[in-house]
Input
Amino acid sequence: MFLTDCWYAAGFPDEFGRELRGRTFLGEPVVLFRTKAGELVALEDRCAHRRLPLSVGRLKGNTIECSYHGLVYNRSGACIKVPGQNDVPRSAQLRRYPVADMYGYSWIWMGDPAGADTCTIPDYSRLSLPGLGRHRIALHVEGNYQLIVDNLLDLSHLPYVHGTTTGNPPVSESASVKTERHGNTVQVKRWAESVEAAPTFVQFGGYRDKVDIWQISQFQPPCYIRVSYGSGPAGTGIPQGEAIWEPGHWGFQVFHGITPESETTTHQFRYILHEKGNADAATIAEFYRQNDQIINEDRVIFAIQQNALLTAGDGASAADLKTSVIIKADGGLIQARSIIGGLLQDDRATAATRLRA
Amino acid sequence: MIISTAAPGSFLRDHWYVGAWSDEVSEKPLARTLLGESIVFYRNASGKVVALEDRCAHRRLPLSMGIVIGDTIQCGYHGLVYDCAGKCIKIPGQEGVPAGIGVRCYPVVEHHQFVSVWMGDPALADESAAIGFPRLGDPGWAHSKVRLEVGANYLLIIDNLLDLSHVAYVHNSTIGNAPVAENAIVKTIAAAGSVRITREMVNVPAARTYAQFGPYKGLFDRWQLSEYTPPGYFLINNGCAAPNTGAGDDSRLAGPGEWGFQVYHCITPQDERRTHQFWAIAYDNATVAAKDRPEFNRQHHHVIAEDVAIYEAQQRALDCSGDGVCAEDIHSSVVIHADAGLLQARRMIARLRDEARI
Output
């Protein structure tokens, strides 16, 4: 079950061009390309005839020719040619998905096209700010998207999963945690004062003494997540604040585009954003390498979790882990799951009403 | 498009299927899965092909891991020996063999390079009904053959071969060009036991392979005569003649000025998602000079590999769709004119399957 009336990250804009690219979102195969004028087009990735994916076909001008029997579809998804016959069956129509390029992502609307309003694309406008360093990575995760949401709303995992970079014991042992819910958004703040800095913070923040640290995870359904990581010399931090780049502070922000591929796999498109400061190219490259290592460490966790769920045999799933213990750090993810669950229930109720009507 | 209400997996059993090329079978056991059944083939002392259930009655080890001794095969685990009829005739370390111990034996007929296997009730096996193509092995004809392991359901292959309009798109670097799809006059004739589809193209440009090896470099008349016989046999007569010499009759390839070749496909399901495709091309020795045959054959092997890529992409799309589709019912939302042949064939398969259930 997925929320469909939402924009999802389809990828990074420069991944799509004058070649056909097939990608599956929410279990639906989609073929993406750009028209000659550069406009992004997303269509159902299967020929109406013998179901061959159109992504293995040919892009001709602004049309796609199926590579099996040569049916041709225009950018609206309408079949405009069936070789060897004059008429084209009206049923030969592919679904067309609304798309938009914004804030460093290509977004796709997976629900009723009538509801596609680009104003509801999450505010990732910071990614468009000039002068900041940014680094991106695309990952294929062998796990359900909810496992990723869980992970990003409970950063007490840092000392255990990312102990060689951003994690050390104070992040879980000494931190205060505050979870706030405003409407359908959740914010988890985690902070610790006068603690040892984790390796990445020592290396790039230049700390020799104790530090104040703070992390703010923000969640909006279906799975838009931003995380800010901040630090400053002990006694100077703004533990509950937003400011991560005040003079004397060091930190970075992470933006996640999380898009379910299937019930057990997920696309993750991630940006980190940081002030360049005086860091040289080699230092920045090492910082990026550490970030890529971090997200791959998480990816391994997701795959193992998903595999454990699939082989459990007791009906457990990512939507219902059948966990036997709830810990304090779960506050944020429980809120997020309750929001997702509520919206899914609304969707089902709407669908039921539509059926009755 | 709902073609049949039959459950997937109901293969037609009371038929001959090609299990191997003759030259694949020797005194070394050959393991092969047909219609979901594991079979071991070997040649006995007198050179006759034997096909037995490939699992020892004792601990289920495949007999194909054993060795052939004269007319018999010995299990590679505890040494049980089976004769050509599948009867266990020796259990090492004990006197005599309890009655009734054995493995299933499949009727086999070897003809025209094929080892054909009867997959149904042995009492119904009629050797004269096994389909073969006598040009394979005719000294006046050359041929090239291959067995392909296709990662797709057999119905996707049958669909393909009954709608040769795809030749224009899938094989456009060799035997295909646009007129094959755009300008063909197509007729579909369903007879009692087969479906025939004729595709005639009059006064069209020759596709690359034809121009390179045939007598017509510019415009020509071209035909594709495809005949399907269940469960999975195809004979396709491909040829050409001088432009506007008109459509001929079924004896084409024999007339003056006619040039072409025959293609054979024998489609044997391995399971729901894998299929053996025994493919051969055959042509009169005069059609292609001996020195040109390697390249001529290579182009056709390339063609068949292009089709395999299509089948496997379709199968993957079906497997990933999550909406209950399968090769049996692909939920196609459009039927085009060119589908006439494959719809006939699928109806024929469904009817045979229904009859088999009665």
